[in-house]
Each structure stands twice: as structure tokens, then as C-alpha cells.
Write a structure and sequence with these properties.
Elements lengths: L4 H23 L9 H4 L7 H20 L8
Helix pairs in contact: 1-3
Length: 75
């Protein structure tokens, strides 16, 4: 069966978000912001750039599983 359009759109937005996280981890200064992503996730002493890459990889893994969903029959 074909995947619903909403699932495809959500997956595309997650992919764009993961690519933006990787891009900002490489090209932007992580110390410019007083409260980074790692701090917002409750890890104030964790390196910001590494955390952004880990978060992007975890998002890509979740996207892979989400894209594998199919319109199933529950009967």
C-alpha cells in the first residue's frame, strides 16, 4: 500500500531539520548562544557540537523507521 501524504511530509521536515542540525554543528560557533541545545536537554556540561551531531543522527534513525511505516490492516 502507498504511504499517506502526511507521513511523507513529516518525514521530509524531519530530514530537513536533521540536515540543519548537522550544518549548524559544523559551520556555526556553538558558544555564541548562552543556552545551547545540550543545555535545553538537561546536559549543561556536554559539548554542544557533539550533541548536535548525536541528535541529528538519532533523528535520522527515527526518520528511517518512520518512513518504513505502511498503511496496515488492523483486522
Amino acid at each position: 500500500m502507498k504511504r499517506p501524504l502526511g507521513v511523507t511530509l513529516i518525514s521530509c521536515f524531519y530530514i530537513i531539520g536533521a540536515l540543519v542540525l548537522i550544518f549548524t554543528a559544523i559551520f556555526f560557533n556553538a558558544d555564541a548562544d548562552g543556552f545551547g541545545i545540550a543545555y535545553r536537554f538537561g546536559l549543561p556540561n556536554f559539548p554542544e557540537q557533539i550533541f548536535r551531531v548525536i541528535l541529528a543522527v538519532a533523528s535520522l534513525i527515527l526518520i528511517y523507521g518512520y518512513m518504513g511505516l505502511k498503511n496496515g490492516d488492523f483486522g
